[in-house]
Amino acid sequence: MSILTETVLPGIVQITMNRPERKNALDRACYQGLIDAITAAEADPDIRAMVLTGAGGCFTSGNDIKDFAGAAETGPRVAMDYLGVLSTAKKPIVAAVEGFAVGIGTTMLLHCDLAFAGKGASFRMPFVALGLSPEGASSYLLPLIAGSKRAAELLMLGEAFGPEIAHEAGLLNAVTPEGGALALAIEKARALAALPPQSVALTKMLLKRAQAPAVAETIATEGRLFGERLLSAEAQAAFAAFLKR
To answer: Which of 10, 74, 76, 197 has the most neighbouring CB atoms within 10 Å?
Structure first.
């Protein structure tokens, strides 16, 4: 199973990206699994919080380039569907990051309510280097939380950065000792699950309400441009070079 779900404590479901042999790279099946897991948690009255993490000491290395290169239309569509489900979830989602968080592995944190990372985590949004464009409403949300200069640095240069910079940029709530992110995420999810659920849901809705239309519009616009870029000569050349490694 590429996506694992487990009720780790009463009211808390852990959703684990589980392709450790591929550093949890996300193919179309993974995205559909994530959509199904979040949708099921949203519909289950016994679930009050979700913890999102990756297997094998890695969050996710981002899109599976081989899968996406061969599915320029269906690949981005299911990824955008996932971003839509993630960004509109009513129940709280807490992320636990260890190892690599590349591409959508970084941008999805913008939609998690809380996020924690181990000291050894590494983040990167290499869209430009791959001949692509930003996704996940990162072109809108990242300048809001990190400032325009930091957002330009992280999105345009696309260089790897550590958890301290991710914390400063507003992507994380805290940095833990290496290997400690999941335990802290579960602890915070347990605290959320103990609170009145309708109050938690209303607070989440109010926190996201003002930005929700812009986020939805940006995800759609970025998704259209991302799909176009997948077919571009620049992206195809970048994919070919990547797959020759």
So the answer is: 76
**Helix, strand or coil, per DSSP, at residue 52:** strand
Q: How many domains does the chain have?
A: 1
Q: Average pLDDT in the 131-156 region?
A: 98
Secondary structure element (H or E) that encloses residue 101, with its range: strand 100-102
Domain holding 172, by residue range, is: 3-179
Beta bridge partners of 54: 17
Exposure class string for 153-192: b at 16+ Cβ within 10 A, else e: bbbeebeebebebbbebbbbbebbeeebbbebbbebbbeb
In this predicted model, what pLDDT tens digit does every residue of 29-47 receive, in sequence order? 999 999 999 999 999 999 9
- Sheet bearing 3-9, strands edge to edge: 3-9, 12-17, 49-54, 93-97, 114-118, 174-176
The pLDDT of residue 65: 83
Which amino acid is located at 7 in the chain?
T
Tokens representing 98?
Answer: 């260890």
Kindly tell me if the per-residue pLDDT of 239 is higher than 90: no
**Does residue 47 belong to any structural domain of this protein?**
yes
